[in-house]
Design a protein that fits this description.
single chain
Length: 249
């Protein structure tokens, strides 16, 4: 079977799985069972097809992004990134390249004041992330530790508005935003994607994977945002020309 045929088959399987976490787990298992060269081919076709606005392939790209963001795929992702660079596909390689963040704003690293009159330990902050107290949750949303945010993202009291506010906040640590990108529950929400791509604190690899999933209107917003990287602006300009006006909510 050709690469296109394999990707089409995988896309059909993915859209038949309703639960996004199960989709990501299935794709992760599938990719880990493939040779890195095959995974690179799959990623190239999935990106190209998503840019062409093929709905099933947009869903597949989302699932691949979630799968490769998992720690179990760190080695595979790095290998595929290297293969794409060797093949002369630097823009695609960049979408998988986790660069070390630049010196981040110290303000983004401050632990919020939880009103206890003392320093709150990491263990306590993890416990607070499970709270159903909305006032506490508002404070935990400002926590700089990715492990705290990971727990918080599973809190049933959390709303999409909370997550959009988190993704739009500045300054915020890159690793905090990466936790949102890794969350099957929240990254599939369209407004969360928009908030991430418009935030200059979002790692470039994340933004480049999100871009093919946005509408032309939101791509234009990103292309015109002067606080975003030139590379991301150029990618959004290129995609704007390929994107239909169909909304992908």
């Amino acid at each position: 079977m050709s690469v296109d045929g394999q990707v089409d088959a995988l896309a059909r399987t993915v859209v038949a799985i309703a639960d996004h976490a199960m989709r990501a787990a299935y794709v992760r298992h599938t990719l880990l069972g493939m040779r890195p060269e095959q995974v690179a081919d799959c990623f190239v076709v999935a990106m190209s097809s998503a840019e062409a606005r093929r709905p099933a392939h947009c869903e597949l790209l989302q699932a691949i992004s979630l799968a490769l963001a998992d720690d179990a795929c760190n080695g595979l992702r790095d290998t595929v990134c290297g293969l794409l660079q060797v093949r002369g596909e630097p823009s695609l390689a960049r979408a998988l390249m986790r660069a070390s963040p630049d010196d981040e704003d110290p303000a983004a690293q401050r632990v919020p004041d939880f009103g206890k009159g003392r320093t709150v330990t990491l263990g306590e902050r993890k416990s607070l992330a499970r709270s159903h107290d909305r006032a506490l949750i508002a404070r935990v949303l400002r926590d700089p530790h990715p492990h705290v945010i990971r727990i918080l993202l599973g809190n049933p009291t959390l709303t999409e508005t909370d997550i959009v506010r988190l993704c739009a906040s500045r300054p915020v640590l890159a690793d905090v935003l990466r936790e949102v990108f890794r969350s099957p529950k929240w990254i599939v929400r369209y407004q969360v994607k928009v908030a991430l791509i418009l935030n200059p604190c979002t790692p470039l690899d994340i933004a480049l994977q999100i871009a093919p999933l946005l509408t032309a209107q939101d791509l234009r917003r990103a292309a015109a945002a002067t606080d975003l990287s030139v590379e991301l602006q150029e990618a959004c300009k290129r995609l704007t020309g390929k994107t239909a006006t169909t909304t992908l909510h």
